[in-house]
Amino acid sequence: MFSKACEYGIKASIYIAQQSLQNKCTNLKAIANEIDSPEAFTAKILQRLVKNEVLDSVKGAKGGFLIEAAKIDRIMLEEIVYAIDGDSMYRGCGLGLKECNACKPCPVHDKMVLVRKELKKMLTETSLYELAHGLEEGITYLNRL
């Protein structure tokens, strides 16, 4: 459903939020290792997230990435997705047809409208804190099994 870059961006943001809740700044190498992503690709994704003010970066020997603790509960999943993929998941045809709209719908058009509505609701109502807290409590997992 999400692009690979967006998947990595979400996983990285959750991991950075978890570390930030413990007052830790996390470097690129640790993030890439944790989310099983190539470092160069991860760096580009993190740059986008910094540019869109989802993450903060700290330069220097002890630098890395973090999120202000007070900001973690205000960052919604939608912001991360938008920073990486824009709003493309809300547009276009579910079957990839060039012409698909309410007047000339494809066979899955009406179902996609419902799916996108639910997806948007989930993305706008899910905070980064909620996701990071799930990791902290051991309710959810980010590592590969």
Automatic annotation (TrEMBL):
It comes from the Bacteria. InterPro entries: Tscrpt_reg_Rrf2, WH-like_DNA-bd_sf, WH_DNA-bd_sf. Pfam families: Rrf2 (PF02082). PANTHER family: TRANSCRIPTIONAL REGULATOR-RELATED, WINGED HELIX-TURN-HELIX TRANSCRIPTIONAL REGULATOR, RRF2 FAMILY. This is RrF2 family transcriptional regulator.
